[in-house]
Amino acid sequence: MITFLARRVLSSIVALAGVMVIVFFLARLTGSPANLYLPEEASEEAIRQFNENYGLNDPIWVQFARFVGDTLRLDFGDSIRQQRPAIEAVLAVFPHTLSLALVAMICAIVISVVLGCLAAFYSFKLVDRLITVSSLTTASIPDFWFALVGILFFAVQLGVLPTSGTGSAASWILPVATLILAPVGVLTQVVRGAMIDAMNSGYIQNARARGFGQNRLLFRHGLRNAALPIITVAGDRAVGMINGAIIVDTVFAWPGVGGLIVRSVLDRDFAVIQAGVFVIGVAVILFNILIDLTYALVDPRVRVS
Amino acid sequence: MSTGKDAPMPNAIARHRPASARWRRLRLLRRSPFTATMAIVLAIIALTALVVPPFIADAAEQQNLALRFVEPFSLDHGIAYLLGADALGRPMLLQLVMGARTSLMIAVSAVVLAGLIGYAIGMFSAYVGGWVDAALMRIADIIHTVPSLLLALAILYVLQPSVTNLILVLVFTRTPMYMRVARARTLEVREGVFVEAARAIGSRRSRIILHDIRPLVTPTILTVAMLEIATVILTAAGLSFLGIGLQRPDVDWGMMVADGRGYLSSAWWVTVFPGVAVVITALAANVLSNWLRAIEDPTQSHLFAKPLPAEAPAPTSSANLGSLS
User: Could you report the per-residue pLDDT of B149-164, keeping only the tens digit for each?
Assistant: First the structure.
């Protein structure tokens, strides 16, 4: 288990390093920040001074070497836009993204487990078909459009939900609904499949023969054994939520990391892009470790091997 | 002593099989009214997107400020304005058809290109093995780890928005998935006895990959590609919505939603209709691919071959498929 975890962490770190290298060069391909931050009539001297301040005068490979060194020391440089360390700018908004993603993931798992179990319990009957059609539908709705229609209906027409903000509980409803849209569709189908598999297995037949009630069969025996594929896909979808977070940040003006990185790309604020991608990358790695530990918790066989 | 010509040629059998399988699928489709309806819907959308745009291109771009935000569901201004008009008085219905062409063209090109590239690299990677395989898969991992929207955003910002660049970005972000699937399937198939037999009679590596392994990897990739169409339509629409996918005069559904965003409270139809078009198209593609997966799965296909028995024997494995009919 420990070796397995260590290997996972090591390969994730290699992947993260690769990502950081890509981000470094991609960011610099977008053009020079001096063109954005200095007035058009800025003198040669002013541009040189600006680039000097942010270390943009050196040849690209010198910049890259410095970037590697700094990143290893967790120094991401200063944000040009915000005039403070980039990592500070990122960590200031990160909790908003993390809390939103956590709430959304919990909602997504609860909803899909309920729907998936229902579909499996009534498999190939009307309820199952309805649930399958709805889960395919939610997986076919563009999240940005759902968010706008949500605003149109609940905020503009009915006036019961706010269009943006993070303060009240009501302001969480639309962002969370937007985020769970795609994961719920996929997860429901996975839960359904895993539950049908589990409910057809020998130990369930045995438990049924011994006269255990339907609830006990479903929850104590079925769900527990169906948990592995559910956790795997839920973990995969949680990482995919970063895409949804970008949309939520844009449409609902949610002050999250996704929106910050998008703005920083447009602002050519390289340090913030790099720090943002790094923080998200580390969060994803930690999350994957958590998933692996959950495996061990759910399945005793994993603990032994 | 039989010559190559007399011997039953495996290729001939392989060529024969897809045709009959296709007929079988069509027969099965007749038994699934819901899926069949969705297939027809998709066909109509595709046909419209293919045939109609050249005839309406000018009319769709025709700005008419007198008809600014004409309300939908009225024939007062002709059939073109059935779904209302946008902020510049352009007819929504015609814009939607133009958008259908762009959206579908982007989705189909991206899926086909990513599929072919990932398919080739994945099989190659699995067959070669060793450090080449490890390196290719690590690259796939890295591309997969970066949130696709973020990656696409950065690349499109560098490349400038255009249809070609949007397709390139989608191909780049979607290829790793096919690589993994093709690789996994090749590794699985490679263990088959028939591959060993081919090796035993002295087939070259290239021949084994192309003639023995490839025919078994293809259906898996096709199924995945079908599923990907909906995903890619949604992703492309998202990028256009963020304003980095396309530029006028090119128009797609995501861009139309973004255009309507500013008038959400006054002219809902400008935002709502393009989204409905995306939902219908993606749903049709999803339903079709769900059904395709089900009939390709031996543990489920019997459910479609004959009317459902009263107590349907539930499938035993890979049952995370829908039960649509």
Answer: 777 877 877 787 888 8
A246 Cα to chain B: minimum distance (Å): 8
Grouping H, G, I as helix, E, B as strand and the rest as coil, residue A211 is coil
| CB environment A188-205: b (16+ within 10 A), e (fewer) | bbbbbbbbbbbbbeeebe
Query: Residue B92 has which token pair?
Result: 């929504």
Yes or no, beta carbons of B237 and A142 under 8 Å apart: yes
CB atoms within 10 A of CB B246: 24
Query: Taking the alpha carbons of B64, B68, B69, B72 in that order, is the dihedral positive or negative?
Result: negative
Degrees to nearest 5, angle at CA B46 with B150 and A133 = 70
Cα–Cα–Cα angle for A50, A54, A57, rounded to 5 degrees: 75
> What is the C-alpha separation between A78 and A76, in angstroms, rounded?
7
Take residue A142 and report the two structure tokens written for it: 């563009």
How near does any CA of chain A get to the CA of B149, in Å?
6
* Tokens standing for residue B186: 């090749």
Alpha-carbon radius of gyration of chain A: 24
pTM, two decimals, is 0.82
Question: How many Å lie between the alpha carbon of B230 and the closest alpha carbon of chain A?
Answer: 7
Contact (CB<8Å) B320/A193: yes
The H or E element spanning position A17 is helix A2-29
**A265 with B315: Cβ contact below 8 A:** no
CA pair distance A196, A118, nearest whole angstrom? 11
pLDDT in tens, chain B (325 residues): 444 444 444 454 444 455 566 677 777 777 778 888 888 999 999 999 898 888 877 777 777 777 777 777 777 777 777 777 777 778 888 888 988 999 999 999 999 999 999 999 998 888 888 888 888 888 887 777 677 777 787 787 778 788 888 899 899 888 988 998 888 888 888 888 888 888 888 888 888 888 888 888 888 888 888 888 988 999 889 888 888 778 777 888 988 898 888 888 888 888 899 999 999 999 999 888 888 877 776 555 555 554 444 444 444 333 334 434 3
Write down the pLDDT at residue B20.
Answer: 61
Contact B245, B161 (CB under 8 A): yes
d(CA A25, CA A295): 37
Residue with tokens 């002013």: A46
Rounded distance, CA A135 to CA A111, Å? 11
Rounded to 5°, angle at Cα B195 from B17 and B222: 45
Choose from A24, A113, A144, A199 for mutation: most chain B CBs within 10 A.
A144
Burial of A298 (0-12, 13-18, 19+ CB in 10 A): middle
- Across the interface, whether the CB atoms of A136 and B287 are under 8 A apart is answered yes
Structural element, H or E, at residue B109: helix B92-128
pLDDT tens digits for range A254-282 = 888 888 988 888 888 888 888 988 898 88
Which residue type does B270 have? V
Beta strands in chain A (DSSP E): none
Please confirm whether the linkage preceding B249 is cis (ω < 30° from 0).
yes
Q: Which long-range contacts (CB under 8 A, 24 or more apart) does B9-13 make?
A: B10/B211, B11/B211
CA distances from A4 to A8, A14, A18, A293, A304 (A): 6, 16, 21, 11, 12
